[in-house]
Amino acid sequence: MEKYLLLSILSKQKKSMVFGCLLPAFVRWKDNAMNEREYQLVKQLRSTLSKMELSLDAIDDAIVWLDKAGNIQWCNERFAQLNNRLPIEILGQSIHQLMQLKKQDIIVPWKEIQKYANIYELEKNNEIFLLEVSCCQFHQVDEETNIVMVLHDVTARKKAEKELIYLSHHDMLTSLYNRPAFEEALRKEITKSYQDKTSFAVLLLDLDNFKTVNDTFGHHVGDQLLITVAKQLQDSVRKEDFVARLGGDEFIIILSNIKDMKDVSALAKKLVARFNKPFKLESHYFHATVSIGIAIAPSEDI
Predict the structure, then answer these.
(1) What is the CATH number of the domain that holds 192?
(2) How is 55-102 classified by DSSP, letter by letter?
(3) What is the DSSP letter of 143?
(4) CA-to-CA distance for 256 and 169, rounded, in angstroms?
(5) Ordered per-residue pLDDT tens for the chain, 302 residues
(6) Are residues 44 and 68 in the same domain?
(7) What is the CATH classification number for the domain harbouring 106?
(8) Phi–psi pair at 240, nearest 5 degrees
(9) Which residue range is the domain that position 44 belongs to?
(10) 157 shares its domain with 179
């Protein structure tokens, strides 16, 4: 009578089940001795599974194998590291309890995660990870549906993208908006003014003796002066107003929703008075007076 033995392939290094749940090897046992051919097949299978495991452990993506209920059947090293555990410690655990994936600070239900590939937040050890998560269902013969979840860490990529967007719209020296950002803001303000029947003002500012300071004391002092001027401008306007550096010693301000020309004149006088006072930089005092040009749109409403 023939008998069958279920072999679970064990990792020598981890002492944990590796793909035992995925590819069980049924070896025919005859007369209490294994056939040589079958022995070689098992040996080959074990070698293949070991290589597969090493390959999956070497990649950067976290991979986890789940049953239909969301219980962990297998995971690679990256998934275990993401959860600060050893692979053998999380086998059988519920993915819902182990990881709470969020979208805009709201925990996303497991059923929704299965349906759509998306980017989710995961908080672990006081760190926020951005993970691109995708799931794939598969069926084995005579077995229930299983799920493979792949989690790709895009934290560094998203951070770099955010920095690039910031740099494309901001002046690197002063952290004010730059010329392209101003042009975009101006187009939006014109559209808003036309739609809402409101007026806005544009103030162009130029430092009168910046070149003298730059040539006399060097670019590092000139840069410090520009940074100081930028801060003074930001502190002088409302939160909803727009301040940008066009380049060199030229700055520009957009004042939204202007009701009275007197408000614009008052701000211009305030800025002139503020810049008439000397600035102290590196034990030196500098006079950085400013010239201001003003445009109102549409002018007939003021």
Answers:
(1) 3.30.70.270
(2) HHHHSSSEEEEEETT-BEEEE-HHHHHHTTS-HHHHTT-BHHHH---E
(3) S
(4) 19
(5) 444 444 444 444 444 444 444 444 444 444 445 577 777 777 777 777 777 776 667 678 888 888 888 889 888 888 888 888 888 888 889 888 888 888 777 777 767 777 767 888 888 878 888 999 888 887 766 667 788 889 999 999 999 999 999 999 999 999 999 999 999 999 999 999 999 899 999 999 999 888 888 888 888 888 998 999 999 999 999 999 999 999 999 999 999 999 888 999 999 999 999 888 887 777 777 777 899 999 998 865 55
(6) no
(7) 3.30.450.20
(8) -80, -10
(9) 1-51
(10) no
| pTM, to two decimals | 0.66
Catalytic positions are 249
In terms of domains, do 198 and 289 share one?
yes
Domain shared by 176 and 228, yes or no? yes
Q: With CA atoms as reference, report the closest residue to 228 among 285, 301, 300, 163.
A: 285
Same domain, 230 and 294: yes
Alpha-carbon Rg for the chain in angstroms: 33
- In this structure, how many other beta carbons lie within 10 angstroms of the beta carbon of residue 117? 12
Between CA 247 and CA 241 the distance in angstroms is: 19
260 and 175 in a common domain: yes
Same domain membership, residue 199 and residue 278: yes
CA end-to-end span of the chain? 103
Number of domains in the chain: 3
Same domain, 133 and 248: no
